[in-house]
Design a protein that fits this description.
By secondary structure, this protein is of the alpha/beta class. It has 14 helices and 15 strands. It has three domains: 189 residues, Glycogen Phosphorylase B (Rossmann fold), CATH 3.40.50.2000; 199 residues, Rossmann fold (3-Layer(aba) Sandwich); 59 residues.
């Protein structure tokens, strides 16, 4: 009987919650950890992470800093919108869904732009008096040591100076932890621990680098030394919005014989080929989301008669580039043409990087305050509530590598209105999706009207066909087998 393929999967950050462009592989790996019968053995390597739900996941656990490996500066999670504007009553989340959103937090983008920082165990206070005493002792000690040095105690001076520098570094680290700025120190330590772990690992047949970075070069070198026949697979977390400088350079792989490069869409395949990867080895990973996280409501009876249609707009940042201005203009016109028939929930952070992003006009936000509710950023796990509760998902933003959020919405039975960019023309989006030219407000409104007719013809939410995780896992297993054979 042939031995199963030995696979090492490198995922820099392992977590139950993450950005959309990393979400697919996080979901797939968590689904993988639940499977008992698969055609390969594997070990997942992560520099940092949390929620390791399988012994096959290894990540750097640093004593006293375990919680620091989480996204410690993430804003407090927004809760469920109660959708009570214009007399709209929300369904009971506990009766409809397995998990309901957490503490409620609503407001305008201005009110949400500076959310309270929730640091948990990190929010301890340094007692200033002992700290000042310590600094004074250090200064006195330094003066004494310098005097001793002048009396020919040079070696003693060096040892004490080294101890003082170590103490200063320790005090500095404590201060960084207190303020939440020790990110670089902790990450560096995590990477060092990861390399030490890889050096102790047994040889593998396949190394799957999900997101290349500076550490992946070292991992390749170590595992290739153990087994020169180790096959290398990279992706699908490569590039962002078509920019090749996101975390890796082609030079990392120019001298390597890659067995496969994974993409998350047909459009992403073209991007990778244009960037310089061999088109013959680029494979499209079928899109899917974890069925435990994204599914239609348990109570499928959600009539839309005698109430407004509830639209949903979601983006990581509420910037013009992400389409928020276009969506709000659409809401303005919808309200003027069909008063009281449409309302919306907007999800996302109002904080934008003004060097590359543009804030929406203040007046535009105020003009739709009666029809639109801003709930701020929320966790990915909470998205199922919104996808399943609301009626239509809207995406007006710039092109994405792949349609992750659209697959999530469809998996919850929610139709989508999208721009007609090629990146959203995937086979899995052929049912329940409506397309319009970006920037065309009339086209966007017409698509919303068509989506309304679609949901009126279906009395209850249902699963709109997308790829299931079982299919994606079988595809990945086949990629590993083809790489070895």
């Amino acid at each position: 009987m042939p031995q199963p393929i030995r696979v090492a999967i490198y995922l820099p950050f392992y977590s139950g919650s993450c950005e959309s462009r990393h979400a697919r592989m996080h979901d797939l790996i968590q689904f993988l950890n639940q499977q008992k019968e698969i055609g390969f053995t594997y070990k997942i390597l992560a520099e940092r992470g949390k929620n390791a739900d399988s012994p096959r996941v290894w990540y750097a656990r640093i004593p006293f800093l375990a919680r620091y490996t989480e996204t410690y500066r993430r804003p407090v999670s927004a809760g469920a919108s109660n959708l009570t504007r214009n007399g709209i009553a929300s369904p009971d989340p506990t009766a409809t869904f397995t998990e309901s959103p957490s503490t409620q937090r609503k407001g305008s983008p201005e009110q949400l732009s500076n959310p309270p920082m929730k640091t948990g165990w990190l929010s301890f206070r340094l007692i200033t008096s002992p700290y000042r005493v310590t600094r004074r002792l250090v200064r006195v000690t330094r003066r004494l040591v310098r005097k001793a040095y002048r009396q020919s105690f040079g070696k003693l001076f060096k040892k004490i100076s080294s101890a003082v520098r170590s103490a200063r570094r320790g005090m500095s680290l404590i201060g960084q932890i207190r303020t939440g700025s020790a990110h670089g120190v902790v990450w560096k330590k995590c990477r060092q621990m990861l390399i030490e772990h890889v050096e102790k690992m047994q040889a593998v047949d396949v190394l799957h680098i999900i997101r290349p970075n500076a550490v992946s070069d070292q991992i390749i070198e170590i595992l290739k030394a153990k087994n020169p026949a180790t096959r290398i697979i990279v992706g699908p977390n490569l590039m962002a919005y078509g920019h090749p400088s996101n975390g890796f350079s082609f030079r990392q792989f120019s001298k390597l014989e890659l067995s496969c490069v994974l993409a998350i869409s047909t459009y992403h395949q073209h991007l990778l080929a244009d960037f310089g990867f061999d088109a013959g080895i680029i494979r499209r990973l079928p899109p899917s989301v974890h069925p435990q996280y994204f599914h239609p409501p348990q109570n499928n009876d959600q009539p839309i008669t005698n109430r407004p249609i509830r639209l949903m707009f979601a983006a990581s940042q509420l910037s013009v580039e992400k389409g928020i201005a276009e969506f709000l203009l659409c809401m303005q016109q919808l309200d003027s043409r069909y008063p009281g028939e449409y309302c919306a929930v907007v999800i996302g952070s109002p904080e934008v990087n003004e060097s590359v992003q543009t804030r929406p006009p203040e007046g535009l936000i105020n003009s739709v305050s009666e029809q639109v509710e801003f709930v701020g950023p929320i966790t990915r796990q909470e998205m199922n509530y919104y996808y399943s509760t609301l009626d239509i998902f809207i995406h007006c933003g710039e092109p994405e590598n792949g349609p992750t959020t659209m697959i999530e919405a469809l998996s919850c039975g929610t139709p989508c209105v999208l721009t007609d960019h090629i990146c959203f023309r995937e086979p899995e989006l052929s049912n329940g999706c409506f397309y319009y030219p970006r920037g065309n407000i009339d086209g966007l409104i017409n698509c919303i009207l068509r989506a309304k007719e679609f949901i009126e013809s279906h009395s209850a939410k249902r699963f709109l066909p997308t790829v299931r995780h079982e299919q994606t896992l079988k595809f990945l297993e086949q990629v590993y087998k083809e790489a070895v054979n």
